[in-house]
Structures are given as C-alpha cells and as structure tokens.
Amino acid sequence: MVPLIATEFFKLRKRMMTWVVALILVGLVVLLYSVLWSASSRVQHFGEGRQFTGIDLRQALFLPGAVPYALQIVGTFGAILAIILAAGSIGSEYAWGTVRLMATVSSGRMKLILAKLVVVFGLTAVGTLLAVAAALTYSLIIALYYGNASASFLTAAFFRDQFAAYGRTLLVLTPYMTLAFAVAVLGRSTLAGVGTGMGVAFAEPLIDALMRTAGSPWKNIPDYLLNTNRQIILLQNKVPEVLPRLGGGGGDSAVHSPIVAGVILAGYAATFIAAALVLYRRRDIGSSQ
Predict the structure, then answer these.
(1) Is the pLDDT of residue 289 over 60?
(2) 36 in a structural domain
(3) How far apart are the first and last CA of the chain?
(4) Domain assignment present for 173
(5) For the chain, is the Cβ count within 10 Å smaller at the N or the C terminus?
(6) Cβ partners under 8 Å of residue 95, min gap 6
C-alpha cells in the first residue's frame, strides 16, 4: 500500500486542480475575514434585538476565534472542494484512459482504490489545516493592528476543543467526498461525481425544507439525511456567537444527539466507500465506455 499511496500522492500533488482547490479554500477564508473586518468598522448594532456591536464583531475576529471559525468555513464550503478533489482523483483515470494501466501495474484493484481514498482524505485534512493557518495569520494581523495580540488563550482546554472541532469538520466532509468518489467510479467520469456531489450539497437543504413543510410522512425523513446531521455536528464547534453561522439551517440539536448524528454520517461514508469498492472490483476496466 505504501508505494501506491506515494504514487497517488505524487499524481495529485502535481495536478493543477489540487492547487486550485487549495487556493480557493484559502481565498474563501481571506474573503470572509476581509468582509467581516470591514463590516466591524461600519456597523453600529446588529443581530436579533441589535445586541451586538461592531466592536463585538471585531473582537471575535481576534486569534481565539480564528480556529473554530476557519473550521466552520471549511465544514460549510470545504465539502464542495472535497467533492471536486475526490471525483477528479478517480474520474480522471477513466478520462485519460489510464485506469487499465494502473490496475495492471498495481498489486490489486482494491489496494489501488483504497490508496486513492487515503490520499484524498489526507489532502482534505491538510487543506483544512491550510485554511486554519490562513485564518490564524489574518486574525494575527487584525489583532496586531488593534494592539490586542495575545497568546493567553493557548490552554490545554483550548487545544482539546480545537482538535475535537477539527475531527468534527473532517467527519462532516467525508460523506460528500466519498459520495462523489463512488459516483465517479459508477459513471466513469469526473463530471458525474462532481455533479452528483454538488447536487446533493446544494439541493438537499432545499428538499429538506420542503419535506418538513409537507407534514407526515415526509417531515422526519430529513432527520436521517446528510445536511441535518452535518449541521448537528457543526453546531458542536464553539464559534463566537457574534460571527455569522454558515451553511443554513436544519441542524436542530433536538433531532439527534451529536453521537447519533456522527454515526449516521459515518454510516453514509462507509456505504459509499463499500459501493465504490464493489463497483471497481466487478467492473470490466478493459473499456472506459
């Protein structure tokens, strides 16, 4: 497995798509922080009951809130980029006609596709850390500008909370990533994986809302779909209240406990991985059609 993982990592590292996805993620963090910083100097009061001020917003952008908010951004928008990365990693093999060659020279089909999944997950984890680094850098600039830079928040409890938030963020990305990967295998196409993954990411919140307004038996179905359980998990990350929550609603913590929501998301991811393995193993890869 190690040589295969090294090969897949080399291939994805050398692809322009990987770097473009990483730059987009960092750009989103920089853009959102820039907008919020600008807003903090312009607004006087905002929020329900106008309980927040521009100063409250500015202080939330300082270093203590950088990591949780960066993870909130990744948990919301990073799913789209993980979908592109996952679908492209396997779909491009069919598009380039290299799928048969790779399966032949590797020590087994299952090891090859598992190596791809390991590398995609690893790059997603690294990309998440990259977004956190960008947020920390920007927050440090803001804090230094206002003379409020301090490391007093770096406690054992802080590190424990942020590592847990990091794990939650990767958990909510995994079902979307594995869905795109499985559909790309099924459709032998990057476009199929990206289209399906993005369709689910964008359309499901709207469908969930329609189901909840339709009454029985539809209203309880969204409780077991991806979006609701993703929001339940993300709500566990301790983001400053003044900062806008991203990704829409649907995350009523009364629906499930975080543990149940995590099990549901993990179940979806395991199902998509199993489907990809079965499809790839049984398929005749002598033809890409």
Answers:
(1) no
(2) yes
(3) 28
(4) yes
(5) C
(6) 189, 190, 288
Instruction: State the pLDDT at residue 268.
Output: 97
Domain count, the chain: 1
Cβ(161)–Cβ(144) under 8 Å? no
Tokens of 35: 């907008």
**Phi/psi zone of residue 246: left (φ > 0), alpha (ψ -120 to 50 degrees), beta?**
beta
Contacting residues for 214 by C-beta, under 8 A, at least 6 apart? none
Q: What distance in Å separates the CA atoms of residue 19 and residue 1, rounded to the nearest whole number?
A: 25
pTM: predicted TM-score of the whole model, two decimal places: 0.87
Tell whether 288 is covered by a domain.
no
Taken as a whole, the chain contains a residue count of 289
In the numeric block, the tokens 């600039």 are attached to 141
CA atoms within 13 A on the CB side of 281: 10
Give the separation between CA 131 and CA 125, rounded to whole angstroms: 10
Closest CA to 113 of 288, 235, 283, 280: 280
Residue 248 in any domain: the answer is: yes
131 pLDDT above the threshold of 70: yes
φ and ψ at 87, to 5 degrees? -65, -40
Q: Lowest-pLDDT range, 69-83, 161-175, 234-248? A: 234-248
Query: What gap in Å lies between CA 275 and CA 105, rounded to an integer?
Result: 23
Range of the domain at 7: 2-282
- The yes-or-no verdict on residue 97 having pLDDT over 90 is no
